[in-house]
Amino acid sequence: MTSSRIDDVEQRHVCVTQDVDVAGRRVTLLKPQSIDALIDEEDFTRDERLPYWADLWPASQVLANAIAGEAGAGRSFLELGCGLGLASIAALTAGYHVTATDYYADALAFTRTNARRSVGRAPATRLVDWRHLPADLGTFQRVVAADVLYERDYGPLVANVLDRVLAPAGVATVADPGRIAAEVFVRACDALGIDLVGAPVHEIRDGTATHRVRLFELRRAPR
What we know:
8 helices, two-stranded antiparallel sheet, alpha/beta, Rossmann fold, single chain, 8-stranded mixed β-sheet
């Protein structure tokens, strides 16, 4: 992807900004003004693809707050479904070597742009389809995802992805606000030897609403 493609999101989209507090630090995210304007009928017909990446979800905020307090120096980090890039920004701030992935090229472009605006540098990015992982993606010491269990089929799918990308002794966190595939996901991880070691619930306010987000904390079982 060329640098002009990376840096021209404001030319290709009508954008707005949203301020977010991450561990006491304000992060200003650039995002498309309208999700509806991004819907591609051909993409939806082919695989029901919708641009959920273009909004900031409560689970992403909870995940970013958790990551920001970690000691990531020298450790590899993978975000599955980076969206606007908030969790990857928190990981860069924590010192991780970050690779951000998404199904949408525009999500990667916004993640790079937002990271540059926030911390002065961008993560590595990869366009990734979870059903067909790149053979050279590799494994990572830290793997995270936010609000990715909203379809029942995604439970075993995300578990299988973790099985592929989580390094020995690696740690994964999946932030979930109570989606349909959450329990299926946990069972699928257990069957693959990925242990659930914690599931704390965090509350976050969004205007007048309070959202409860569970952080599924997972480790690969010793072999």
